[in-house]
Specification:
The chain is of the alpha/beta class. About 35% of the residues lie in helices and about 25% in strands. The strands form 2 sheets. An 8-stranded mixed beta sheet has the order 8-9-10-7-11-12-13-14, with helices on one face. It has a 6-stranded parallel beta sheet with strand order 3-2-1-4-5-6, with helices on both faces. Bound molecules: NADP nicotinamide-adenine-dinucleotide phosphate. NADP nicotinamide-adenine-dinucleotide phosphate binds next to helix 1 and helix 7.
Length: about 325
Amino acid sequence: MNRTKKINWGIIGAGIIARKMADALKINTDSELCAIASKTISKAEKFAEEFGIEHAYSYQEIVESKEIDVIYVATTHNFHYENAKLALEHGKHVLVEKAFTVNAKQAKDLVRIAREKNLFLMEAIWVRFLPSYKLLKDKIQNKEIGEVKLFDISFGNIVLPKYARRLIEPDLAGGVTLDMGIYPISFVCYMLGELPCEIKSMTQFSETGVDETSCYMFRFPSGCFANISASYNLKMKNSAEIYGTKGYIEFNQFVCGEDYTILKHDGTNEIKDTIEIHEKNPANGFVCQVEEVVRCIKEGKTESEIIPLDETIGIMEVMDKMREEWGFQYPFEEEGK
Ligand SMILES: NC(=O)c1ccc[n+]([C@@H]2O[C@H](COP(=O)([O-])OP(=O)(O)OC[C@H]3O[C@@H](n4cnc5c(N)ncnc54)[C@H](OP(=O)(O)O)[C@@H]3O)[C@@H](O)[C@H]2O)c1
């Protein structure tokens, strides 16, 4: 890859999140958004006009376009696997919205294809690339609060009507775990650099039959615990508390906050030092994720070290296991997908 050449992007799915990405791609000077694809061509045309994009395509046309280097899959969860597979099979690098796929079986298949074809593939957990995340991880790894022993995270919002369908429909692979729970799960795995070895979970189902409010408890190989609750129908505190042997961190405004407080002690119950941290993130945080994709593709990398594919598969396995505990399958999974 010529490192001075711009990376040409195409987007599959002309919905809500595609707009945030289109804005981010305008900001990144190494990127060019060349095409948008939708199942409904008039929708793609409208999107193209709104963002000044040259081509409005069908899915088939976008993956066949010679000028496009990388496809961003911005459809609902149920479509991620087939959209990403189509793009990879046509030789495109792929960035897939979260949750990467519906289950680990699909995730493994995408990773297999990408590796066979030597293509870049990544799950779009955009928050991992934010400066505030990087600094927080550094502080944890540098043992500012000693050995980390417990994460306590709540992440819940009453879903806005414009997002509701995506969250509540079993056919779209809705449910709080794939849509929102993935963030705290991914957060803990990223901060610790490991996957849970023991999992206990419970859920409350919605009237539509998807998981609405869920609680997850994990034990990690390092001995750390995580206690996570997520809901698309409860306004929660949206914070992460991280407890170590020498203090704790309050990370407010989960999932993409810029402020946190480190409260240190010396192994007693008395707080000796309180440090307020502010680490600014860009207004459109997707820009950091775009920079990572561009960097990886230009350097000929097929995955990002910040969110390795084996970790993405591991997290899908965690979510599979919890859904198994709840006896919860999506309708199309019953057909073996
Ligand atoms: N990173 C974030 O902060 C963030 C935030 C929100 C969402 N997301 C993720 O982004 C993805 C898309 O979310 P979104 O809010 O953008 O979704 P959306 O606007 O509801 O839908 C995105 C696209 O999915 C297809 N689609 C949606 N509903 C459909 C239906 N009933 N039947 C057939 N196709 C349908 C359409 O593709 P066509 O245009 O081709 O028809 C639509 O344009 C999800 O994976 C979600 O988890 C991420």
